[in-house]
## 1
Amino acid sequence: MTIKFRVFASGSNGNSGILSTPDGALLIEAGISRKRLFELMNETKISREKIRGILISHSHTDHCRGLPIINETLNLPIISSKGTRDSFLRFQPYDTRWKIESEKVQVVDSEIPLEFGAFRIHALPTVHDVVGSTAFYIEYKDIGVTILTDTGTILPNHLDAINKSTITLLEMNHDIQALYRSRRTTWLKRRIRASHLDNHQTIGILHEIHEQKEALLFGHLSGECNSPNYVRGELVKWGEEMDEFPWNCFICQRDAPGPTLTLSGNDTLKASEEPLNLSTLKALKENDPNQTDLLSYFPE
Ligand SMILES: [Zn+2]
Ligand SMILES: [Zn+2]
């Protein structure tokens, strides 16, 4: 049995990823173009015929802007909350292609998981600035995958899902000081604070994860108010407390797809790129005085 998971894109420019199993694949978010999606699927060696459904967490365009065109080709069920489905209906006067999409939506209720082929899909409401936004916890046999981005707070049921998951994608949207230093209006800064996780919030929750897992990916980084170096800086501090990263950790950058993660039988996880290594990051910190983001920008 081979399971593949890959984040194709993460951040306000577009979000998309895939979970592929012997019983079919789920596309998770459709915030990139059809052309880009199919290129990345080819690169990941997953055929489009394997996809059984498309999960959409909420109706912000970075999560669904490619959906009408992608589903012109795939013609698959869409899985979302009722609130997100209703948002698609509201898009119709502006773009008639959304009419077709809304009729194809299988609503997943926050109380009752959706049995969808070989998958059980849980929609976990998030604290975000749009109606019906959810995270997803996907079960396939004994594998669990959590996708948690676009939330101002990590709720107890999010934490339960993360603890049960083999692979988790977690938001690290902004560095709080970078956000406050940015030229955004006070209103917008407050809105971002309330609806996205900052680096410290996410690091804080890692101390609450006690179950063994294969991989943690950090994504949905802000372009203006975060950087992979800020995230690495926070992760070094967390890793130092633990003596080592307890799991395989990866940062999903805004301008490149994430690693392909492969689980086969009882083998440990294989990844197409090296996971973050604490001693390498610490050596960077000690040896390169120009690594200012990593060295001296440790906001309190
Ligand atoms: Zn988003
Ligand atoms: Zn959003």
Note: Confidence is low (pLDDT under 50) at residues 292-300.
## 2
Amino acid sequence: MSTQKLKKFVDTIDKHLTAEDIVVNIDLCTGCNNCGHACAWFLETDDQRLHPRYRADVVRRVYHRYIAPPGKVLGALGWIPTPTLDDLRADMDTFWKCTACGRCTLACPMGISTRRLIRIGRAAYTESGLADENPTLRAIVDNTRDKRHSFGLTAQQVFGRANLFLRFLQMDIPVNVQGAKYLFVCPAAGNAKIPDLGMSLMQVMNVMGVSYTVTPDVIDTGTEVDHISVHHGLAKELLEEWEDAAERLDAEIVVVAECGCDVRTLYHEATETLGRAFKFPIVSIDTLMEQAIEDGRLPVEPIDASVTFHDPCYVTRLSGLGERYRRLMPKLTRDFREMTPNREYNYCCNGGSGGLKLAENTILRRKVSLPKINQIRATAADLVTTPCAVCYLTLKDITESYGLATPNDRRARMFFEIVHAAMMKALTARGETDRIHRPAVFEGKDEAWLAAHSGVRMLEGATDRQAFEAMMAWARGDPIVQSFGERHPGFEAMLDELEARGHPVQREGAEG
Ligand code: SF4
Ligand code: SF4
């Protein structure tokens, strides 16, 4: 078994190393250690095991001993180290005490991508089965394989909970609309952790008037299997499921939400994962918002609160999209304050790509977030915003643990929340706040169409009573639903009323 695992580990590294990886990322390292000056995990701990080079050298040793042609001879002579399975197991934790943020490359005189070697190393740990020894890493793969959602939620839970919020807020969402221009896909971290905040984004979509749809066939974008586990097989399956859904619904374009990993995947890594280009054009939701602000479809008025901006590494450093937010911020706030350093030199939140997900990292992660907190503190801004769900969750966590915020007085905001606040200010001034409620594709549709495509009508008219009751029982115990109820008087009563009613619910004017 050990021999098989070691072989699989080596084979995976061999499979993913390109000629460029070998020439540059493996062989050009001079051992100067400059990369450590850019990595918060090393800078804040001085722990050599957390130095970028330490992790990369694990991959280099495997390559030189087991893959490079002279390795067999040199290894047999004892001139180079022979990593054993136990050696690899002992170093596994260091691969997930890194966010694959790429900041270390900025400090490397040879331009070495340590993050690339870390991703290849993670793939080897996952494919060899060693990563299964960590329960969180195992759960990501098992949940994705079995439930198509890395947090283990079902489509009924994802959509049922969102529809409860939508119903209370007198909103709605278009589901499985054939011929909608955009298919909107949401990462699991978004629909699992911040579905309540997502209501603001839905309101922005309604006001923009975009023709979009969602589908219960895609409830996870594969963020965690792609970037935490680096399980290329499952990541590929999920990407193909997006394509199938877009094809079936005859959508023209796929829209990704505010998720740094999804932006990176779709703009760059999907091609490697699929072995070909993704079949549909991809656009970030923030691109749609920028276009709608530019052409006047999305009115905004700068808010008074001072706001600073956290660059998600995967959006700015690794996808080159940071300037868009610099164009937008002055339109959204009267007082935009840059962090120092910013853009590609900004410090990582330390939560992405597993930093936040692995609970055993929490104390260390908060410790290495001191540079990030100092950046935020130095701006003295009222709010810190970011276009990434995991960065947001991490910023929320560290602003609270460092005493800059409380759970009831959030300082962290999703970027779309800032857009939403500026939009509401403009709509209120115009007396047009009614525009937030209804998706554009609902216009002119009859009751039969709405019964088939309105998320809220589907909730109300659920014919599978057993599934509905199971979802409601789960929702009643869900902390996000409970927190929403505490912030929205009347929500609990709505749940009671919904449960007490027979099904399907008759709406005024509804047929049948
Ligand atoms: S990718 Fe980021 S977290 Fe990982 S070693 Fe480099 S600087 Fe550190
Ligand atoms: S800075 Fe570059 S060359 Fe120097 S140790 Fe790090 S990866 Fe190697």
Note: The pocket of iron/sulfur cluster (ligand 1) is lined by residues 38-39, 41, 52, 98-104, 114-115, 118, 348 (CB under 6 Å).
